[in-house]
Model the fold of this input.
Amino acid sequence: MSVVSFSKQGNIGLISIDNPPVNALSQAVRAGLRDAVAQGLADESVAALVLWCEGRTFIAGADIREFGKPMQPPDLPAVTKSMEDARKPIIAAIHGTALGGGLEVALACHFRIALPTAKVGLPEVKLGIIPGCGGTQRLPRLIGVKGALDMIVSGEHVAATKAHVLGVIDEIVEGDLKAQAIAYAQRLAAERRAPRRVSEARAKTESPGFFDEYRKSIAKKSRGFLAPFRAIDAVQAAAELPFDAGMKREREIFAELVASPQSKAQRHVFFAEREVAKIPGLPPDVKPRDVKSVGIIGAGTMGGGIAMCFANAGLPVKLLEMNRENLERGLNTIRKNYANTVSKGSLKQEEMDQRMALLAPTLSYDDFKDVDLVIEAAFEDMGIKKEIFAKLDAVCKPGAVLASNTSYLDINEIAASTKRAGDVMGMHFFSPANVMKLLENVRGAKTAPDVYATAMEVGKKIRKVPVLVGVCHGFVGNRMLAKRSRECGFMLEEGALPQQIDKVLYDFGFPMGPFAVSDLAGLDVGWRNRKSIFDKLSPREQANNILDQICDLGRYGQKTGAGFYKYDEKRNPTPDPLIEELIIKHSRERGIARRRVGDQEILERALYSMINEGARILAEGIAARPLDIDIVWIYGYGFPVYRGGPMFYADQIGLKTIYEAILKYQKQVGEEYWRPAPLLEKLAKQGKGFYSEA
Done:
């Protein structure tokens, strides 16, 4: 059967697209659309045409499987031009989502109607590109430059009701969309309405300097990204050039971005985020357990944030603390967080009330006897966690999933404190848990397949990006981070300063440098972790006690007004001469001659140490695929999306380049710290990458 069909209802031609699951604009759809329009125009009994999509959505975008491949004719600009040039009115009937190329097709139609539940958008910037089929040229002509830029540069979906106010949609209709669209077309035909071509309108600008002001307005949020700024260039062309010249400019920018490393990285992340939730090797008959109620131990920063995640998803939560004071404090913090969201207009008061009503405070483990999932978010201490899990083992019903929010500790050891190791796993949320998207699910040696399948399903339900990893100290993210932290600490001893290292990594694309992050998290947290593993550190790591010295001064970061930096009342950082003096004195006492550490060396030692550890993690099976590591680092640690994650970035740089740098630092820093991972060495010598290994 054809994915596009043409039929008639009276004097109205109906073009139907049926290309499940999302009616993507594949070559067959493009060709079918072209042919159906031609058929409708050739039939003299047809007065107007309706474009309608079967299934749950209008055209939800291009077929991105075709990206990077030669475009098979007809291309979409040619198809949309034939639609806009049609001498009979074409009406787009929109339900579900009209996104990317889907909205561009709708913009080439002469009229647009939609159900109130529909959404429209041009999300191409999220793939590192711009709309390439007239989106940047037609939308500003239809709704004005400001409204068009807000949609194109953000890439966000817009509700049909708002799109109607903006002028994207002509009419909101209720009920049977197909029947309403045919009636609308019949009305147009009866009124002998001529096609209304968006390309013939003018794109109105606010002021002569508008585009420069808009660039400045997105500078911070879009730092490092190419596509948002090139989108502004394309929209500016709509305001300054005739339509055909603007279309030519749009295609030039589109082609330039499609071929860019940034777009390749962002497309990689797009697919990796969807792939990461699939568990390699999971038998098809394994089904997740049903989770309808949750218990959380600890109402502090992490526990409270985790509780919000479940309340936001409509799941009832029992929140346990050791005393009423801690419990009240935790609930008040949650209430305050919700109230802030209400005050910003992002949440309605009744929604806040509903979510707060789902939280049941308790001081007794007995209240966990019927919950389906328990997440422990207590202090990061093995003795405490084992004691908690022994209590859970005694109280919880058979089949309940018992999870720890530990960042580092051995899940197998925690599981051994119960008689149901198969039900135990790690569910590592990132702070603040109600904001951060990553959920690092940790599968123990004895964790049952349906238990880790449950954790992955729960992650999706609470709108996280869940990644399944294995057990080791620090799992994937923190294990790699430890190598970066070690090198940054060594570079302080050798001649760098915190602000230099932070600037290099900030300029690379991280939201903050490592020392600024430590100050934000609280230096006492890192200090406590350092003490807990002190005996496992090398002599040089033990002797590198700069963090200890800073914490001994009572400087724990932002919360005390000083850490690696000093902070004003608005928590703005400035480098502190006292810290510089402390670091220089430390180097002198250690007998290390300080030297100029270049920015390139900082970048290489910070990133290549992580990538090398990532190769070990892959070889050990702690992460099943390089994309698991990339997603952990993008959503948990702020690795720039436009660089695709550490393992994708490594392939872009070339593993041979990284391998040679590792050998260089081996001589400079020591073999103990810079030993090439066997997998990295093998792939480098074979001229392969992590993603080309298979």
Observations:
- The mean pLDDT is 96.
- The chain has 29 helices and 19 strands.
